[in-house]
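Hi P.,

Sorry for the delay on this. The queue was packed all week, but I finally got your sequence through. Input first:
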Amino acid sequence: MSPPRRPDPPAMQTNDVRVAAAGTAAWAVALVVLLIVGLPPQDRWWLWVCCAGIGIGLFATWYVPRLQAGRARQEAERAARRETPR
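Then the structure:
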């Protein structure tokens, strides 16, 4: 028989927008470094990788607050339904 399982810890609160912005900034720095260093023609695709990373990071910075607001709204609706007697 296995020992009883401990309860899961609560979810860690993070600032996801800050994480997305930091990743976007890191891709921007990488792009600048690659532009300064210069790349041979066969390796220029790395510039597009950096551009894609910046684009995805900007999208995440825009989308994450909306996602979190939607989740909070759903949780509030669930809590309201639980409190309403039938």
